[in-house]
């Protein structure tokens, strides 16, 4: 009994140490990590990149903001939170890059992982977009490698459309887009979530300036809280 207790205590200690060390920075998985996280159904992501261009001119778009996230799903199919969220901003060549992440322990099924990640993408003056996995529309079961997660959008060229809406219509579109982000972030981080995501905050600053320029009011939540 004592030996069993010691083994269990050591296993928990190892789990804690490995989990904390692994979440501090992403790296190539060791054989031990592959075994440990494989046994406990852990997850880890591969690097991800894409190129953002103007859908009509095909010219690269600099400063487009992207959020890539792996969501958890509740019993009725609703999003209940996320297990990983990363942000990036496109460079002068339109390139977005997300580093590898994990490994980490997470209660998320293979079925849910097949529908992840989702990518929110926006830039002032363009219609925002939400990209879902292409695998969702493919028949049959896809194999999921939980320790080497990636996206079907990796290394793809993604086009954004210049908005043709009136300023008022564009404001409604962007507020709806931001409310979707609000609902995703609130449970995990709280009302001042944008502080933890500087690229997201910069993008929202651009929209706030756009609204002020056209005398369209404020971004409801973004402008409603004193966040340091």
Describe the structure.
By secondary structure, this protein is α+β, with helices and mostly antiparallel strands. The protein has 2 domains: 2-163, Sandwich (Immunoglobulin-like); 165-228, no CATH class. The protein is built from 5 helices and 9 strands; from the N terminus they run ααββββββαβββαα. The chain has helices spanning 2-24, 31-39, 110-113, 167-186, 198-213; strands at residues 43-45, 48-54, 65-73, 79-89, 95-98, 101-104, 118-122, 129-131, 157-160. Strands 4-3-7-8 form a 4-stranded antiparallel β-sheet. A 3-stranded mixed β-sheet has the order 5-2-9, with no helix packed on it. The chain is globular, with a radius of gyration of 20 Å.
What would the CATH topology of the largest domain be?
Immunoglobulin-like
Mean pLDDT: 80
Oligomer: single chain
Report the portion of residues in β strands.
Answer: 15-25%
Strand order of the largest sheet: 4-3-7-8
Number of domains: 2
Radius of gyration: 20 Å
End-to-end gap: 52 Å
Number of helices: 5
Structural class: alpha+beta
| Biggest β-sheet strands, sense, barrel | 4 strands, antiparallel
- CATH class value of the largest domain: Mainly Beta
Order of helices and strands: HHEEEEEEHEEEHH
Overall morphology? globular
Spans where pLDDT lies below 50 across 5 or more residues: 1-25, 136-140
């Amino acid at each position: 009994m004592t030996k069993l207790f010691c083994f269990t205590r050591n296993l928990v200690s190892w789990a804690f140490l490995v989990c904390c060390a692994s979440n501090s920075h992403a790296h190539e998985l060791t054989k031990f990590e592959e075994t440990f996280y494989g046994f406990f159904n852990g997850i880890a992501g591969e690097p991800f990149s894409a190129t953002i261009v103007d859908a009509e001119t095909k010219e690269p778009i600099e400063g487009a903001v992207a959020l890539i996230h792996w969501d958890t799903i509740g019993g009725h199919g609703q999003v209940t939170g996320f297990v990983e969220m990363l942000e990036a901003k496109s460079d002068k060549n339109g390139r977005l890059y997300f580093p590898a992440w994990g490994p980490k322990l997470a209660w998320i099924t293979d079925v849910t992982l097949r529908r992840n990640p989702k990518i929110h993408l926006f830039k002032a003056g363009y219609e925002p977009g939400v990209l879902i996995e292409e695998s969702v529309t493919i028949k049959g079961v896809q194999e999921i490698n939980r320790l080497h997660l990636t996206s079907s959008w990796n290394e793809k060229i993604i086009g954004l459309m210049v908005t043709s809406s009136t300023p008022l219509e564009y404001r409604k579109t962007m507020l709806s887009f931001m409310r979707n982000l609000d609902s995703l972030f609130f449970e995990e981080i709280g009302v001042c979530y944008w502080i933890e995501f500087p690229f997201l905050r910069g993008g929202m600053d651009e929209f706030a300036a756009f609204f002020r320029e056209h005398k369209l009011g404020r971004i409801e939540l973004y402008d409603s809280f004193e966040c340091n």
